[in-house]
Amino acid sequence: MTQHQTRFGSLEHFEKGGIQVINDDPKNYVFSNVYEVAAKAEPYEKIAVGKNLKYVLEAIRAEGTSPWYAASHDEAAIVMDGEVEIRLVKLETQLVADDHEGTTMLEGNPKGRRMGHIVARRGHMALLPKGAAYQFHAAKPGVILLQTIQGDLTVERWNDICQK
């Protein structure tokens, strides 16, 4: 029996990997590495690394304290590396229109009831609920994979990040 070893990457140590097309056109496939994307990103820049219709997975370099964000829909954050504190506030008033898709960056501190915070480490997933504002804080650089809807803050760099 062949033994395989799973190696989980990190922001500081990753191998890009690749795809091997057996019987198809390579143009039908793309491949990127969330750690490589986050390593080259600005803190809290939201770079699309996966897309399915209007839904995207965004690689985010967590470093320091982010602005506050909100969305008209639920989002989910998976910490891929490091430790990230997620602060949550139940908004007093609706700040994002129901028909606005994707993440919205808020100005200043949101008004509302503090809901608490989550300390998430590698492999942990946190729900970022509709109607709440959230802020990330990471004392050391880390990586977040955010499942959301493509919006104004989504950055697309497919030519730069995908294997060709």
Textual characterization of the structure:
This protein is mainly β and 164 residues long. The protein is 6% helix and 45% strand. Strands 1, 2, 3, 4, 5, 6, 7, 8, 9 and 10 form a 10-stranded mixed sheet that branches. The longest helix is centred in the first third of the chain and has 6 residues, at 34-39.
What is the topological layout?
Elements: H1 34-39, E1 46-52, E2 55-65, E3 69-71, E4 75-81, E5 83-91, E6 103-105, E7 112-121, E8 125-128, E9 132-149, E10 154-155, H2 158-161
Parallel strand pairs: 1-10
Antiparallel strand pairs: 1-2, 2-9, 3-6, 3-9, 4-8, 4-9, 5-7, 5-9
Intertermini distance: 33 Å
Strand content: over 45%
Can you tell me the overall shape? Answer: globular
The average pLDDT value, as a whole number, equals 94
Low-confidence stretches: none
Cα gyration radius (Å): 17 Å
Q: Total strand count, please?
A: 10
From N to C, what is the helix and strand string?
HEEEEEEEEEEH
**Tally of individual helices:** 2
Query: What is the percent of helical residues?
Result: under 10%
Biggest sheet, in brief?
A: 10 strands, mixed
**What is the oligomeric state here?**
single chain
Structural class: mainly beta
Characteristic key phrases:
10-stranded mixed β-sheet, about 160 residues
